[in-house]
Amino acid sequence: MPLTATRSSPLDIPTHQRCLLIAMCTPKTPRPFGEVAIPSLTSKLHLVAGRYPYIGAPLALSLAAREPWGWEPFCELTCNYDRGMSVAIEGDEVLVKTYSENAEVAAAVVAAGYFQPTDKRQPLNFGDLEVWKVTDKFVTEFCSANRQWAKSPLCSQH
To answer: Which of 55, 92, 122, 140 is the most buried if burial means most Cβ atoms within 10 Å?
Structure first.
């Protein structure tokens, strides 16, 4: 089905196109959105959507903390997809590092409702990358924070 700006809701976008559209709607200066509470931190973290500079999974996600001087990067959440990987990812999925220093952060992001883990894994020599689906909450909060894309197919009713 072709994309048009006449959809009744951004959640009507076919899920297999969500990550690509979010990446296309990401401004050159990303706007953090959402809120994630990490048990071991006193401040809350916010999602930052970006793009990978080359072909692969289009959506790059990181977390940032709001500081008095601005936004401070905290960690990278996603990994770029390499066509040589054995796992297949769909257009509404991202590849996430959930082991080592990202374990606590990954659990908090899922608990906040922004992603739904799948059973798919990409084995590496030092841990597995997990495949997660973006949720409606993720799309809604991204659109709310990025009002300049209000007429895009993804955010047309926000």
So the answer is: 92
